[in-house]
Amino acid sequence: GQRPEQSVMQALESLNDSQVNDFLSGIAPLNLTMRLGDQMMLIQLQLSTVTPPAPTAQPGS
Length: 61
Prior knowledge:
By secondary structure, the protein is an alpha+beta fold. It has two helices and two strands; from the N terminus they run ααββ. It has a domain at 4-45.
């Protein structure tokens, strides 16, 4: 049988450029379908942008 890492690579290689670009732009989530033995695994990656906390002024400094 094939190792899990190989099915991960195959899932990534099956993506096209527009899917990847939409994912990186935050437009659409990325769906990966992986086969592990007898089981199919659907992985959905959602890009979330983390905004840094706004600097708060320290009172009395």
